[in-house]
Amino acid sequence: MIVIFGIREKLNPIKTELSDVIHNCMQLVLGMPEDKRAHRFIPMEKEDFYYPGGRSDSYTVIEINMMAGRQAETQKKLIKALFQEIENKLSISPVDIEITIKEQAPHQWGFRGMTGDEANDLKYKVNV
């Protein structure tokens, strides 16, 4: 699951395109299937969204929650692809993008009535 935070007036107009960019990077780097898009957008009022100096109102936070198993190089490749593609497609500078990857053990995921370590029918690889 991916959670995206930003200032309402900046985030709402680009939600669809940003979701496409993020999912395309997930497919390219992690091999995620087309139907595994799980994005949650949290548009915030400017007065509720504090961010570091030197950033613009386009500042966007992307939290990627995934099952543990991806190699450090794979995760770095994903982060760099996101920086590049968001800048190319949406003209948001990498200085205005913050990305965190939060990994949880497969037994800490619950979906389709089971835990992640019980799922044996995933259409993608976790250990890449």
TrEMBL record:
Show the Pfam families listed in the entry. Tautomerase_2
Q: Supply the InterPro entries for this chain.
A: Tauto_MSAD, Tautomerase/MIF_sf
Q: Gene3D superfamilies, alphabetically?
A: Macrophage Migration Inhibitory Factor (3.30.429.10)
| UniProt-listed PANTHER family | TAUTOMERASE YOLI-RELATED (PTHR38460:SF1)
This protein's name: Tautomerase family protein
